[in-house]
Each structure stands twice: as structure tokens, then as C-alpha cells.
Amino acid sequence: MTDEKKLTPRAQDFSAWYNEVVVRAELADYAPVRGCMVVRPYGTALWENCQQSLDRRFKETGHQNALFPLLIPMSFLQKEAQHVEGFAPELAVVTHGGGKELEEPLVVRPTSETVIGYMYAKWIRSYRDLPILINQWGNVVRWEMRTRLFLRTLEFYWQEGHTAHATYEEAQEETIRMLNIYADFATNDAAIPVVTGRKSDAEKFAGADASYSIEAMMGNKWALQAGTSHNLGQNFAKAFNIQYLDRNNELQYCWTTSWGLSTRIIGGIIMVHGDDQGLKFPPKLAPYQVVIIPIWRTEDQKSTVLEAAERLRRELAERFRVILDAREEVTPGWKFNEWELRGVPLRLEIGPRDVEQGTAVLARRDIPGKAGKSVVPVAGLSHAVGELLDLIQANLLAAATAFRDANIHEPKDYQELKEVVADGWAKAYWCGDPACEAKIKDETKATSRNIPLDQGDAGPGSCIVCGRPAKEWAYWARAY
RNA sequence: CGGGGCGUAGCGCAGCCCGGUAGCGCGCUUGGUUUGGGACCAAGAAGUCGUCAGUUCAAGUCUGACCGCCCCGACCA
User: Could you give the ipTM of this predicted complex?
Assistant: First the structure.
């Protein structure tokens, strides 16, 4: 950062831009332990809005919240072979408690399938107990090598849904239902367009029969897996004896699912919408939707302007999340820049001229400079603000969608795929052979993001790598 | 774990090559003037120079070990 006032431009160093904007906007800060972060009040407010949006959808589809313990017996992890293999390298293990070495080490949960499976086995007896639909809001720890604020930290905050069903069909239906809820949240609340699809075997969750994801394109054209939903088949049911008696009095294993979305979505919101000025929050999730900035010169003006500003704040607060920035130690110009950095969708300026004329100035974060400003009468202001926020929300999604679509390519051959994924996404047929997938990863750093459930009207084709017949195409991209 | 960078005031850095007891910008405090796109003047407060050991009359500076953080890669939500 050469100019202390300005962020590193995204085009110059996207990674530096990201780190600077996260810290300077006060979303998060580095904690004393490597790879851990503190989510500051502003970032927490954003996360809480994400939580509310998701929680409402979970409740609407019949889920209940519960809380399971942070510590899990080591042996639980080992009950499911794939699961332990996948998570063993990144476990934090507690070996001592109360000053004594523990008989059995406890792991700090990297995810909760195992404890929840254990409890489900206790709770489920009959088909009448099914389905069981529980969600947990909490934190988990995964000992990652390389960390980045929000995108990958040792500890992160998320929700994990865990359900048990009587049949495969029901479990699969649930898996896809929750995937679609994530897509709906991302698209309509976070204004992030996503592609939904099935993960390849190499990319799927350790212990799942099938994993599905929503994938979003960031401002540097990398992909971000922003939410996952897994059909766990009977893997955990068998490992933990989650069984029920069916109508015929026969003992059956349950079919379980799990699905999660984390604070990583905040990284997505930052990297999809942000620009060189800073953050650009979608109105539906923004901690503050409107910031009011009063402007005055003389003491007389100060009192009348502040009075008018406070009136507007009260009026707007009935419908919107609004903050009045009446600080006197910084100038209005400084505030403009700061709140733009912090991503507030709409700024309301009110000065002596406005008070006299019964007007206010509204400035849109999504349209820079004078072009985004308009003078509006304070009568009916609330209505005007509501309309503008809707417009901004729609505009952010439209801009992100246009950017994404402009950077998804359909390479004709492997050579072209290599070129394409260096700076964008590829749609390409894949025969399903892990060797072909690995070859792409080795040679381009791009991975298969997912195989869309909706393959469009494309019929079968031939694998972009080996040329053999391929039933499906996948998205390929570099990913976080 | 491999490669790179960095640890000096709250933040960003200079000083280190060539040892002599610490400085700049921003921020902070106080007072005054300012305020429609990152204001200005004046006076202040603030540092065990990452840790430990060594060399030396003397170490931020030289030597060694260690610790930590960030970035790039391999692994991952």
C-alpha cells in the first residue's frame, strides 16, 4: 500500500486488496494464534444477517436448531473410514484436561457428523421418529496449512445441517432441497450468482456418497465453493448404528445428509462485489443499508442540520438499518470515503442547502461519483430509499452475473482449456476418469468445480482430455 | 513442509552495509481555525528496537540460535 489512503488496486494485486479491505473495513482482524481471526462487530453484523436469511429458510423447510458439543472422542472419527482419512491431517486434538492426561484424546470438532450420528442412534427407534431435521450454528476447527481471513482459517463459524431419513430418495431430496436453498440465498440475498452441481469423487466430502456445491466466480475469476450439501448414504448410519424399525417391523439403517455454509460466504461477498474503493454490500445483508452524513459550516447550521438529520434517521430506521455519522473529528469527505470502503449501499448527505429546500442527496455505492447521486425531496424519502435499495440489490446481481457469464468459456480442445482456465472458467466434457481430472489439475491448477445437475440441452460429448465418450460436462477453474 | 518477505511508538516505514544510546509519515491528546469528495496551524503523549545468548568500553546496528507473522506453492469449507 504505497498511498496510505488508497487500497492496493485489485488489478495490481487481488490478494493484497482483499487483505487490506478486510482489515481496514474492520470486518475481521488477525488473532494472536496463527491462522485464527477475530470477527469484529461489523463483520459479525454481516454474518448475523446471513444467519437470519438462512435460518428463516431452514425453519420454513421444517428444520430445528440444536447445539452439540465442541469436543468429540477421537474414536468417533475413526468409525467411518473415509471420514477419518479425510480429516485426520487437520485435527486439533485435546490430550490433557484438568491437569491430567486424558485416557482417550478428544478432537475439537472439524464437523459434527460423528457426534450427531451417535446421538441420532440414541434418539431414533421407529420410522415414526423420521425424518429428523436438525441444524447447528457453531464453530469448527480444521488445522489448515495456509490460511486467509474468512476464506480459510483454523477456526471458522458456520451452520451444519444434519438429517436422517427412512429412504434414499428422501435423503437425496433433502440434499438437493438444501443445495437449492443455498443457491437461493446466494443469488437473492448475497447477490452472488452461483452454479449448482455434483462434486467429483476427488472433491467430495470425506464420508459422503455424493456431494453437491454452489460455486461462485470471484473478481479475479477464481471459483469459490460457497456451500455444500452431502448425501451421506448409509455410511454414518452404519458406523454409528442409526437404525429404525420400519412398518414391517424390520430393522433398517437410516439415510443421512449434511449440509454446511460458513463465514467463507463473507469472503465471497467481498470478492464478488468489491471494487478499488472497497466493499460493496448487497442491501439485503448490509449491516447498515443507509449512512446519513450531515454537513455544516457554522454553529447555527450545525444545529439545524443535525436536527434534520436525526429526524431522517428516525424516519428511515422504521424500515431500514441506518446509521447517522455525526462525528465532528472527521470531515464529510473523509466519511464518504470511509463508508464507501465499508460497503454501505446508500449514502444520504444532508447540508444547509438541503434543509432550506427540504431535500437530501442520495448517493449509490454501486454507481461511483456524481452519476450515482440524486437530489430527492425529504417528503416520501423512505419510499425513495426503499426503491433505490432494491435497484442496488438487483444491479449488483446483474453486474456479477454479467461478469461471470463473460468469463465462462467452452474450449474446443485441451489446449484451449489450458488457456481458458488461466483467466476464467471452462465448461468442458469429462469422461469421469480421475486420471483425466488429475491431469488438468496438475497442468493448469484448475480443478473440477462441479458437474451441473442441469446439463442444458447438451447431449453426450467427448472428454476434453482423453477424447473418450463423456456423458456429462463440468465447470473447471482455479479455486480458493 | 518447500520458496520469498518481514518483525523498530497504535498503523506504515527509515535507521543496520560503516556499532556511539532512536527518527519520519499517519493516527492519538489539547487548543484554535475548518467541514457539499480523504482540511490546516500550534503544542503534547507515546518505543523492554520479536526473544535469548555471544562479541565489544559500547549493540536497533555485528554473530548464533530460537519464536512469530504475512505472501507464493503442495492440502482444504
Answer: 0.85
CA distance A376 to A187: 30
Question: Model confidence over A413-422: pLDDT tens digits?
Answer: 999 999 999 8
The total number of residues shown for chain A amounts to 480
Give pLDDT tens digits for A141-154.
998 888 888 998 88
A65 near A137, Cβ under 8 Å? Answer: yes
Q: Could you say which nucleotides of strand B lie within 7 A of any protein CB atom?
A: 1, 12, 25-26, 28-29, 34-39, 68-77
Instruction: Give A143 CA → B62 C1' in Å.
Output: 39
Domains, chain A, ranges and CATH? 14-273 (3.30.930.10), 290-404 (3.40.50.800), 408-477 (3.30.110.30)
Integer distance in angstroms from CA A217 to C1' B1?
Answer: 30
Query: Contact at 8 Å (CB) between A270 and A21?
Result: yes
Which nucleotide is closest to the Cα of A152 by its C1'?
B77
Sign of CA dihedral A446, A449, A454, A459: positive
| CA/C1' separation A222–B2 (Å) | 24
